[in-house]
Amino acid sequence: MSIHEGKNLPRPTPETQPFWDAAREHRLLIQQCADCNTHQFYPRSYCTNCGSGNLDWVEADGRATIVSYSVIDRPVSKAYSDPNSAILALVKLTEGPQMMTNIVDCDPADIAIGDPVTVVFEDWTDEISIVKFKRQEG
């Protein structure tokens, strides 16, 4: 049995497909408005700052800071009982947008708001890789 069996897989849409394609290649893409230069996440068909539909996909540097987090002591199902899913976090990317994620490879007692984290990818299927973060070393 796969450790990801029974999990809800993301369903890419036309707006999110470039994000998921890049994640499969272990690259973190976010959108940037070509008119006002605002970065945004989650993917949309328009800029949330100026309303422009002139959006580009750019590779994020993969660094972020923990804004908030919660430790999940009781998983919703056996499929999510992996300790690497136990820390749900809101992180702020260096480029500005915030995203929900998991913090992995870390004891929950060792993290704090403001900690620097770096992106990692967890391959769930041949088509879907999930963006997660781990504490930044050094």
Biggest sheet, open or closed, and with what strands and sense? 5 strands, mixed, barrel
Q: How many E strands?
A: 8
Element order, helices and strands? HEEEEEEEE
Strand order of the largest sheet: 4-5-6-8-7
Overall geometry: globular
Radius of gyration: 16 Å
- Structure classification: mainly beta
How would you characterize the overall build of this protein?
It contains 1 helix and 8 strands, in the order αββββββββ. It has 138 residues and is mainly beta. It has one domain. It has a 5-stranded mixed beta barrel with strand order 4-5-6-8-7. Strands 2-1-3 form a 3-stranded antiparallel sheet. A hairpin with a 5-residue loop joins strand 1 and strand 2. It starts with 16 loop residues before the first helix and ends with a strand.
Concise synopsis of the structure shown:
The chain is mostly beta strands. Helix content is 6%, strand content 36%.
